[in-house]
Amino acid sequence: MYKLIAIDIDDTLINDDKEVTPATQTALEQAVAAGVVVTLATGRAYASAQAIARQTGLNVPIITYQGALIKNLLDEEVLYERYVPQDAVRKLFTYCVEHDLHLQTYIDDKLYAREENQKLIDYTTLNKTQYYVEPDWEKLVPQKTPKMLIIDDPDFLDELTPILRELLGDSVHITKSKPYFLEIMHHEGTKGLALEFLANHFGCDLSETIAVGDSWNDHEMLEAAGLGVAMENAIPALKKVADYITHSNNEDGVKHVIEKFILQNADQQA
Prior knowledge:
Helix content: 25-40%
Strand content: 15-25%
Strand order of the largest sheet: 8-7-6-9-11-10
Distance between the termini: 12 Å
C-alpha cells in the first residue's frame, strides 16, 4: 500500500493549458480520502507552487525549488531549506556577467534579474511570476538564494553544464527542468532528498512512496521512490529510469497512476 505520492507540476500534474483537469482533481481528492499523503514536487518557487496546491485542496508540506525548500501549506512553516553556497553564488554571478548570460535568482521567494529582456518576460509569463530588476548585481550576491537559473539555447546549456560543474564544484546541484532552463541549487537541493525527508516526516518508508514526473530534474525523485513513474510526454532519459510509464499530461496521466496504484489497492484491502 503506497502512503505518499509526490507529483511534479509542469507537464505532469497540469496539462498544456496549464490546468488541473476535473478528472485529475477528483483523483487527488480520492487519494487523500484513502489516507494517502499527496504532495507536489516542483522546480517552481513556493509562491507559484502553493497557488496550484491550494487550488487542488492540498494542505500538506510541498517540495519547491527542485527540493531546496519544503514548506507547510497550512502555517507556512519551513521544514527543509538549503541555500546555494555563497562562494558558488559569487562565482556564478561573475561568470554570467563576464559572458553576458541571462541569470535569475530567487530571494525571499521573489525573482530577480540584472535586466529586463525577452527571456525574463517569457519565463515569468509562463509561470505567472512577478519579477524585479536589480542592475547592481553586487546587491544580490550576499542574499540567500535557494535557486539560480540560466535561460538559453538547449545545446548551449549542454555545453555550459560541465564548465559550471568544474567552476562551482560539488557544493551545488545542477539540473534542467526544461531544455532551455539550467538550474543551480545547493547539492542537497534535489527532489530525491526532499522526498526522503518527507517520507521520514510522515513516518513511511521510501518503498511506500510514488513519484511522478516528466523531466530530468525528476530523476532523483523517481529513483528514490518505491514506484517511479514517468509521463508519456516525459523525456526519453527519464522513461529509462522509470518503473512505470503513465498517460501524458493531456490524458490525465496522474489520474491513471492514482487509480491504478492507490485506489485499486485501497479497494482490494477494503
